[in-house]
Amino acid sequence: MDVALKIWRYDSRTGERKLEEFEVDAPEWACLLDVLDIIKDKHDGTLAYRKSCRMMICGSCGMRMDGRAVLACKERMQPIAEAGHVPVISAMGNLPIVKDLVVDMGPFWNKIRSVKPWLDPGYDEVTEKERIVSQQQMNAIQKESLCIMCGCCVSECNSMEADPAFLGPAALAKGFRFVGDPREGNQVERLVAYNDEHGIWDCTRCYFCNERCPKGVDPRDAIAKLGAESIEQGIDHDMGAKHAKWFVTSAKTTGWLRETELVPKTQGILSAVKQTGFALGLARKGKVPPPFPPHVADRVKEARALHDLVGQQGRGGADGIIQMERALARAEHGEAEGAHRVSPEVTPGVQPPVAEG
Ligand code: SF4
Ligand code: SF4
Ligand code: FES
């Protein structure tokens, strides 16, 4: 079959950046990585990209196709070629580009290292037999254990784009893999560290990491679990935690978000007073509902019953975050794994190379 690709070439030494188009003859079973191999082998040996396993397990071949992060060895080219689409291939986002499709993974690994990606067992004594962890206990961290460190989630993270110091979805998913492990002995210390500046509460909940993870890790869910577990352990000093807690209180008491009280409950009285002028401006425009009496939903009992039910089921902390909902949603919407969805053509300047350093 004939396959055409446009590839953003980049050389960090010269800063030169150009979009090049290639058209190659590829077998029908070819994936994006196969097509890149053909280009490198027969058309332009200077094309740079990473690969290793060719079977979606090493995490080397992360790149962007039409502006969304993919594993090149996972993307089948036949439906794209048959649709007559010419995809635009570029390097992953949020990481400095070294050459063409190769990014510097240094910042990625630094963040993984910073969450202590190893088990810190809560026991010293050596036993004669292995310590058995039940299937149910392992299920709690099953998704997070699937991560292959490809960086696709980091590439699409909005929060990291705004704040490169944000720990990010891959590192935090790795963090939950150990927080949720029953053999881990330092859960609380870990949670305190992940609650720090640039930690879990800086996530904007855009869900792009869940959307783009090729292995179903659903890192945003892992961050939600870390947040729920932190609150369960009383680690709630961050404004993000206070914000989340007020949502729960609001829903339970009125069935609505008690927005007027959100700022004082989240940021404190002093900050709320400082924003009085802004609040009065909003009130004059009719944007602030009267705080008293609070508006209570007609069927608020349902919200309260739901709250009580979760409590009765003992689903506090991470257990309250539903597992596999993304996977179920994908199945319900008939979106088969690996199915191609054509995204809008990426135009020059949309993905500027990240400055090195
Ligand atoms: S949900 Fe949070 S961690 Fe995931 S991509 Fe969005 S901002 Fe980043
Ligand atoms: S969480 Fe998913 S997208 Fe992110 S590094 Fe791991 S496997 Fe890749
Ligand atoms: S080459 Fe290993 S994941 Fe693609």
Textual characterization of the structure:
By secondary structure, the chain is α+β, with helices and mostly antiparallel strands. Among the domains are: 2-103, Beta-grasp domain (Ubiquitin-like (UB roll), Roll), CATH 3.10.20; 106-123 and 133-232, Fumarate Reductase Iron-sulfur Protein, Chain B, domain 2 (Orthogonal Bundle). 38% of the residues lie in helices and 10% in strands. The strands form two sheets. The chain has a five-stranded mixed β-sheet with strand order 2-1-5-3-4. A hairpin with a 2-residue loop joins strand 3 and strand 4. Helix 7 (169-179) runs antiparallel to helix 8 (187-194), helix 7 packs across helix 10 (219-232) and helix 11 (239-254) crosses helix 15 (300-312). The longest helix has 16 residues, at 239-254. The radius of gyration is 24 Å and the shape is globular. Bound molecules: iron/sulfur cluster (2 copies) and FE2/S2 (inorganic) cluster. Residues 147-153, 169-170, 173, 213, 215, 217, 219 line the site of one iron/sulfur cluster.
Layout of strands and helices, then pairs:
Layout: E1 2-11, E2 16-25, H1 32-43, E3 62-65, E4 68-71, H2 78-82, E5 88-90, E6 97-99, E7 102-103, H3 106-114, H4 135-139, H5 152-155, H6 158-162, H7 169-179, H8 187-194, H9 208-212, H10 219-232, H11 239-254, H12 262-267, H13 269-274, H14 276-284, H15 300-312, H16 325-332
Parallel strand pairs: 1-5
Antiparallel strand pairs: 1-2, 3-4, 3-5, 6-7
Helix pairs in contact: 3-7, 7-8, 7-10, 11-15
